[in-house]
């Protein structure tokens, strides 16, 4: 059971970093968990934060978890990639 959870956690992290990389224009391998979403080098602001929220919301909704993600959850001051991964995990995992 633990292997499944670890694998799912890694899948979630890969998915989130892939989406962030696509929106920011960076390579996924360069995305670090301690990067802030709005700060350098990512610099994801409006309207890109809307695209990020929509993409992550789609993933969460497709899991049939009954949960959603709001843009305001992503725009908290100092939000990091790692925090976004944990946020998505909390919405997907039982």
Summarize the helix and strand pattern as letters: HHHH
Structural class: mainly alpha
Largest beta-sheet details: none
Oligomer: single chain
Number of strands: 0
**Poorly predicted tracts of residues:** 1-5
Helicity range of the residues?
55-70%
Number of helices in the DSSP assignment: 4
Secondary structure layout:
Blueprint: H1 2-24, H2 48-62, H3 71-74, H4 81-92
Helix pairs in contact: 1-2, 1-4
How does this model look, in words?
The protein is an all-alpha fold. It is built from four helices and no strands. The chain has helices at residues 2-24, 48-62, 71-74, 81-92. It is globular, with a radius of gyration of 13 Å.
Which labels suit this protein?
4 helices; 94 residues; single chain
In short:
The protein is mostly helical.
């Amino acid at each position: 059971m633990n292997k499944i959870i670890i694998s799912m956690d890694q899948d979630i992290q890969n998915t989130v970093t892939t989406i962030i990389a696509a929106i920011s224009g960076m390579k996924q391998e360069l995305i670090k968990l301690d990067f802030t979403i709005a700060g350098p080098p990512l610099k994801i602001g409006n309207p890109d934060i809307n695209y990020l929220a929509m993409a992550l919301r789609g993933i969460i909704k497709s899991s049939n978890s009954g949960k959603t993600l709001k843009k305001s959850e992503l725009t908290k001051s100092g939000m990091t990639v790692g925090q976004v991964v944990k946020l998505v995990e909390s919405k997907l995992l039982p």
